[in-house]
TrEMBL record:
Residues 36-176 form the Peptidase M16 N-terminal domain. InterPro entries: Metalloenz_LuxS/M16, Pept_M16_N, Peptidase_M16, Peptidase_M16_C. Belongs to the peptidase M16 family. Keywords: Hydrolase, Metalloprotease, Protease, Signal, Zinc. GO terms for biological process: proteolysis. SUPFAM superfamilies: LuxS/MPP-like metallohydrolase (SSF63411). This is Insulinase family protein. Residues 190-367 form the Peptidase M16 C-terminal domain. Residues 1-19 form the signal peptide. GO terms for molecular function: metal ion binding; metallopeptidase activity. The keyword Hydrolase applies. It holds the Pfam family Peptidase_M16.
Length: 440
């Protein structure tokens, strides 16, 4: 009886805790088209200022790839009012930290400061948007930086090229088919005008969302936002092409030889719906069930029990137009990549044939509840979620309601979605092999 009572109290407490996680926010547009989202949380004296631009690698010219990622670096070079090399000094001298990242659909810049430095964050991001210096010195400097990053992360890193190799086989028409870091040859041959035109096209207020989250006063912050961002001119509307890729109806076999590895790997990739679609949420649950962590089905079977795999890895790719589910592994001992593939297929067949157990279903629900709470546990995480939900899912309030989608997914739905998307004839099979040595 005591255990039942304690369990009931725990469930009740968790219900109150989750309810308390609701994120209040206010959103509106400036006259120049900049979308603004403000979240006030005065529990700690910190504030995050972030800007997400609706531009990623998919927005590039196929003959000029790598521009979005390049601009992630270039726009730290300085502005008309911030000398070259001073950006990071300004951030750290005011007790802040910041960074940026780029993916297929968006580029994201953010700073987190003590709340009394809010105005510094707004000034920095307005400078980046209004007064960037796109000059030859900065372009040449960042070309070297990006070259070194590619060498470090892709060319000289074990298994570093697998993501690019997967994308080029998974998509044939859609611009997701090239990697985010792009082509160094394209960057090397690009002119200064190419970079200026890219900036003029995409880094405009009507192609961005500004999020300010943390210890703020809403009315004062609105005044500051208007002062710093209101004068920035609206850009031309961004023209996007709606490119649908050819459905995969026969297994795509691909091979890549990596000079940096000694152990082969198998990667399987399935094309899935864009991240705003309900089926994409179901795929996320399937990915977690099959291959997320040491308690997942594939890890327990292939690594712990059968000892066929040295490692199992997987992740869903959440993107705006299409998604993907990637899963693979490294064989151990005398086992082969075919043994790994057979083991993965056997577990996928189970989930397509039988309902997962009620125990596993509840475990999944608990994990997604925990992830939901964790994602909203800091103002920096809240700022990112608000920006992505608005820009890429067209629903800012998912920051409060997304967990309801996961709660509503049934075991039957998991089985049906697995049947629909995880078919052998609808995937890429990438054999990722050590480089062949010259017999001579």
């Amino acid at each position: 009886m005591k255990r039942i009572l304690l369990s009931a109290l725990f469930i009740l407490a968790m219900g109150h805790f989750l309810a308390a996680q609701e994120v209040a926010y206010e959103e509106y547009d400036l006259n120049n088209g900049l979308h603004v989202i403000l979240h006030q949380d005065n529990t700690a004296p910190v504030v995050t200022t972030s800007v997400m631009y609706h531009v990623g690698s998919k927005d590039e010219d196929p003959q000029k790839t790598g521009f979005a990622h390049f601009f992630e670096h270039l726009l730290f070079e300085g502005t008309q009012n911030i000398p070259k090399g001073e950006w990071d000094k300004i951030v750290t001298s005011n007790g802040g930290r910041g960074n940026a990242n780029t993916f297929l659909d968006r580029t994201y810049y953010y700073e987190t400061f003590p709340s009394n430095s809010l105005e510094i964050g707004l000034w920095l991001e307005s400078e980046r948007m209004m007064h960037p210096i796109i000059g030859q010195v900065g372009v040449d400097t960042q070309k070297e930086v990006v070259q070194e990053e590619r060498r470090l992360r892709v060319d000289n890193s074990p298994y570093g090229a697998f993501f690019e190799q997967m994308l080029k086989n998974l998509y044939t028409k859609h611009p997701y088919r090239w990697g985010v870091i792009g082509s160094l040859d394209h960057l090397a041959s690009a002119t200064l005008d190419d970079f200026k035109n890219f900036n003029k096209t995409f880094y405009v207020p009507n192609n961005a969302v500004l999020v300010v989250a943390g210890d703020i006063d809403i009315n004062k912050t609105k005044k500051l936002v208007a002062d710093y961002f209101g004068p920035i001119p609206r850009g031309a509307d961004v023209q996007r092409k709606n490119i649908e890729d050819t459905p995969i109806t026969n297994t795509i076999q691909a091979t890549y030889h990596d000079p940096n590895i000694q152990i082969p790997a198998i990667f399987l990739a399935y094309r899935t719906p864009g991240q705003a679609k309900r089926d994409a949420y179901v795929i996320n649950m399937i990915s977690t069930y099959l291959s997320d962590g040491e308690s997942s089905k594939l890890y327990k079977k292939l690594v712990d029990e059968e000892k066929k795999a040295l490692q199992i890895f997987s992740f869903p790719i959440d993107a705006e137009d299409y998604g993907a589910y990637l899963v693979g592994g490294l064989p151990v001992g005398d086992n082969t990549i075919q043994d790994i593939k057979d083991g993965i297929d056997a577990e996928i067949l189970k989930i397509q044939t039988d309902l997962i157990s009620e125990k596993d279903y509840q475990k999944l629900q608990n994990k997604f509840e925990n992830n939901f709470v964790s994602a909203n546990s800091s103002v920096q995480g809240i700022a990112n979620s608000l920006a992505e939900n608005y820009m890429l899912r067209d629903n800012t309030d998912l920051i409060n309601t997304e967990i309801d989608i996961y709660r509503s997914i049934t075991r039957e739905e998991i089985r049906e979605v697995a049947k629909k998307y995880l078919k052998v004839n609808q995937r890429v099979e990438l054999e990722y092999l050590p480089e062949q040595k010259d017999a001579n």
